Amino acid sequence: MVKHLVAFLLLAVLAAVFAALTLGYQPDAALNRTALYYAENTAKDLGAQNIVTAIVVTYRGLDTLGEVTVLFLTSAIVGLILSTHRAAGESRTTGVPAAGELLRTGSRLLVPLILLAGVYVFVNGHLTPGGGFQGGAILASAALLLLLADPLHRFGHRAIAVVESVSGLAYVGIGLLGLAWAGGFLDNRILPLGDFGTLFSAGAIPVIYTLIGLKVGAEFASMLASLSETEKS
Amino acid sequence: MADALITFAAVLAGLAFLLAMYRFVRGPRTFDRVVAFDVMTIVSITGIVLGAVVEERVVYLDVALVYALMSFLGVIVVARYLERGL
Amino acid sequence: MAAVLDILGGLLLVAGTTFLLLGGLGLVRMPDVYNRIQAGTKATTLGTLLTLAGAACLHPDWAIKLLLIGLFLLFTNPLSSQVLAHAAHREHVATTPATEVDLLDEETGEEA
Amino acid sequence: MDAMPIGRMRSAGASFVLLMLFWVMLNGSLASDVLIVGAVASAAIALIYRDGLSIFTEARWTPAAIGATFGYIGYFLKELVKSNLHIAAVVLDPALPVHPGIVKVHTRLKSRMGRLLLANSITLTPGTLTVAIEDEWLYVHWVTMEAADQEEATRQIVAGFESYLEVMYG
Predict the structure, then answer these.
(1) Contact of B53 with B3, CB cutoff 8 Å
(2) Residue C109 has what pLDDT?
């Protein structure tokens, strides 16, 4: 009883703090200098409708490359640590209740649709909220659904690794092309900017986001694969 | 008139959310909480759609779709975990 | 014409959220997990569909995307409920004492 | 890639059609750039994910099946509304008149899509929730159980949808 009371009180305090924060929030009436620059020049310079995407992919493209690298290192380390466990007992597969028929059929219907939704999110990164990281996470959630429907599913490590490295290399390659043909590393103006607001616009941003999406998806999927195989054996 | 109806709808959705939250807190079993969580996420989808209507931003609907996907996966992940199938 | 659509849309929104509210009420009142899943799934599915229809009336140009969300929900929502109910049954979550028969228990030979 | 068997090709084609439909609805546009990207992505997914199913995979394309599809949609929507009024009546009744049970019912459907749609439909219709499906038996949780007898329960729960789905998918 006392425990409940304490939990309730804590919740109430938390609610009060958040309420005070939200009610007291006053958005700035004018954009500050940096924001103003991006707001005014993004559409003109890069042809991207989504300013956040333009900042992430081009203005601060190098940071994004760093983030992708961090993610790559994480997945590599997860794979490395778990692979030592995996060697022990590879084939023990009993004791896992199989998924029902409905989940198996349903997942075979939904996995392709989820993959396509992921593609939609990263291809349209310059037009709508979302982008490479979000789309990649959705791709990986399709892999998670596969695993839920069949806990013993084995992913093709080689295929995942190929997708990962090819998209990573192509990403850096496009960055270098920007250095050669346009203003600098990861400049998106190596491709024509196109009509503002259409799918083929904003230069190389959709291409870069597609590569980031594939890379992130492959990294998450390989982490999932390592984790699931360790659990089962 | 339509604005008043939208506000009323938002209030009803909020009440539904609170009822689900009550079940989430009360339990008693994890499964009850998962059901409550499922209902809460779906009420949130309605909330997102209402938000899109009020703000007149079609892009919010993409968020609603991804949210629907995540709520579906979330429930299945927990269900499979609880029956030790993951 | 637009005014009529607006009112219709608003009414559909209210109808949809009313069903959501009933679903929430069912969640609170129903005696065991299985009955709660029943109330939750049905009410939220129709409730959300009606809300989506209402939004489509208010913004006819969004209709296709709203239809897509509705179709997606029609497949995923019952599926997750079924998986959850099956998991609850496998873990032997008790049914309410009012339950009359449980033919799944003895026949499927799932490990106890 | 070696030559694909005809069955695989048909199945990949069905997946591609569904994915393309999904893509166009998602984008809400028929512009050529949208279609090109969608076709490439859909083809890649349909070819790479070989276990993919689509609502068209096992569908029959006879005129009767197309008629049955419309009949099914109408019947389903009617049952969905009825189901919610039923739940509302139960929940709002102060006495909470539930006498649930899990009954076993029989289905004749063989195709995977047909069975998935049947189970989903049953879950969304008055007072019933599919808990499991094994071979030709469905285990259904019923909030207000009206018949424990297997044949009677099958007639009440399954028969309505099955008659349509049998024509659509077999």
Answers:
(1) no
(2) 47
Q: Give the N- to C-terminal CA distance of chain B in Å, as an integer.
A: 50
For residues A102 and D113, give the distance between their C-alpha atoms in angstroms, rounded to a whole number: 10
Paired tokens of C39: 């109330």
Radius of gyration of chain D (CA): 20
Chain D hits for C50, CB-CB cut-off 8 Å, are none
Nearest to A86 by CA among A182, A215, A200, A226: A226
Q: Do B70 and A96 touch (CB under 8 A)?
A: no
CA distances from C49 to B14, B49, C70, C77 (A): 17, 11, 6, 12
- In chain D, which residues have their Cβ closer than 8 Å to the Cβ of C68? 22, 25-26
Average pLDDT over residues C44-58: 89
- What is the rounded distance in angstroms from the CA atom of residue B2 to the CA atom of residue B8? 10
Q: Residues 11..70 of C with a Cβ closer than 8 Å to A: which?
A: none
**Is residue A13 predicted with pLDDT exceeding 90?**
yes
Supply φ then ψ for residue D103, to 5 degrees.
Answer: -110, 165
Question: How far apart are the C-alpha atoms of C95 and B29, rounded to whole Å?
Answer: 12
pTM of the full structure: 0.84
Higher pLDDT, C84 or D97: C84
A160, A76 contact by CB (below 8 A)? no
Contact between D129 and C102 using a beta-carbon 8 Å cutoff:
no
On the CB side of D81, CA atoms within 13 Å amount to 7
Q: What's the whole-number mean pLDDT along residues D27-42?
A: 82
Best probe of the C interface among D21, D26, D123, by most C CBs < 10 A, is D123
The model's pLDDT over A168-188, given as tens digits with 9 standing for 90+, comes to 888 878 777 777 776 666 666
Task: Please check the confidence at residue C112 and state whether its pLDDT lies above 50.
Answer: no
Residue that has been written with the tokens 């419309």 in this structure? D70
Among C25, C79, C103, select the one facing D104 at the smallest CB separation: C103
Query: How far away is chain C from the Cα of B44, in angstroms, using its nearest Cα?
Result: 10
* Side chain identity at residue B83, one-letter code: E
Q: Which of A79, A104, A105, A57 is nearest to A164 (CA)?
A: A79
Tokens encoding A62: 């190098």
- Sign, Cα dihedral of D44, D46, D47, D49: positive
* Among B33, C101, C30, A53, CA closest to D88: C30
Whole-Å CA distances, D64 to A51, D55, D72, D114, D153: 52, 17, 12, 16, 27
Higher pLDDT, D53 or D103: D103
Confidence of residue C111 (pLDDT cuts 50, 70, 90): very low
**Is it the case that residue A140 has pLDDT exceeding 60?**
yes
Residue pair C26/D87 in contact (Cβ under 8 Å)? The answer is yes
A117 in contact with B, Cβ within 8 Å? yes
Q: Which of D139, D142, D144, D149 to mutate to test the interface with C (most CBs of C within 10 A)?
A: D139
- Residue B85 pLDDT: 65
Q: Which residues, in sequence order, are CB contacts of D16 under 8 Å at separation 6+?
A: D42, D43, D46
Overall average pLDDT of the C46-61 stretch: 89
Across the interface, of A102, A108, A115, the residue whose CB is closest to D53 is: A108
Note the pLDDT tens digit of each residue in B15-64.
888 888 888 888 788 888 888 988 999 999 999 998 888 888 888 888 88
